[in-house]
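Researcher: Re-running this chain for the archive, since the previous output was lost when a drive failed. Same request as before.
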Amino acid sequence: MMTSDSEPGRPEGHAHLIQSWRRLADQLGPLIGDNGFCALFGRACRVVGPEHCWLADTPPCKARDKQITALDTMLASVAPEQAQAAHAALLQTFTELLAALIGQALASRLLDAALHEGDARKNAQEHKE
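Model: Regenerated structure tokens:
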């Protein structure tokens, strides 16, 4: 099993999933605040809950860091394939909810910046090594 350099013992794919949510929360925080992020995230969890029942039990939270830490724990509790599928469904639903709130164009721009920033950092890090 491949593990993350930054968090020994953590599956590499799982760490990547959580990092994308942390970047997304950081990107959206100044725009919609912790309460807004948590509300959208909680709603997205409830929407995808029937397909990924372990996500439906996400506790309500008013701080995005706590919300993402809870997601981290939940993703770690399931098989990597289940974690990836739930992450994709959750991100898609979160994106749709965000677009309904602030508009598709702005939502796409913010999400692209947050999700691709990590890829650019990873590529830059790989070139240094």
